[in-house]
Amino acid sequence: MLAPQNSLLATHRVVTPDDLTQLPLITAQQNVINTQFAQWLKKPLTTLNQVATYNFHQNAARLVSAGIGYALYLNSHSEVPQSDLAFIPLMPELTSNTSLIWSNERPPSAAAKFLIDHVYQCQSRH
What we know:
It contains three helices and five strands; from the N terminus they run E-E-H-E-H-E-E-H. By secondary structure, it is of the alpha/beta class. It has a domain at 2-87: D-Maltodextrin-Binding Protein, domain 2, CATH 3.40.190. Strands 3-2-4 form a three-stranded parallel sheet, sandwiched between helices. The protein is elongated, with a radius of gyration of 17 Å.
């Protein structure tokens, strides 16, 4: 969850589904992400007060900074994009899996090979 640094929510250690019932929320435009949030909430997002949507995390941050609402935001591993914002983790934790897929019928480009090798290195560290 992305919240204004000076908000009451920013003082919370975690955000639970009950914390979101009355908040103006900024949600992702991607259906797959919203499906994950709905499963986490155990109810459809349409039951919440959705005031805006975003397609990039930077846009969500700008909307939160402008006082539009609080962003349902999955990206906890990146830095908070602006100093006037706070990231509060969700509880229970919500994680998302990503698949990296490529064709075995032709060799990957040098850039793709670098990315694949980097992903394997990161996986082996965890």
